[in-house]
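pinging the channel bc i need a second pair of eyes. not urgent but kinda urgent?? the chain im working w is below, pasted from the shared doc
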Amino acid sequence: MVSTSVHGHDRAGLAGEEICIVEGVDTIDVSHIDTSLIGHSYYGDNPAMIDDLRALIQLSRPTSERQWLQQVEMASDEIYWKFR
């Protein structure tokens, strides 16, 4: 909310109908595990996020092979992922 009011537009990390999807980049909605005040520390505080980053960086596992992620298809035929 603060970012939106300061910059005049939604932040790229906003989930829901206005989720930002960029071709060639896997978008992962982590909104349900983002519990910090300003929404920037979830990646370091959550074991699920640490495991997902490890699978990506150390093990080079693509999004489609990380079984804790679920593919979501939008009406526009764009896809993104979310944690199960």
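so The mean pLDDT is 81. and The two ends are 25 Å apart (CA to CA). — does that match what u expected or am i reading it wrong
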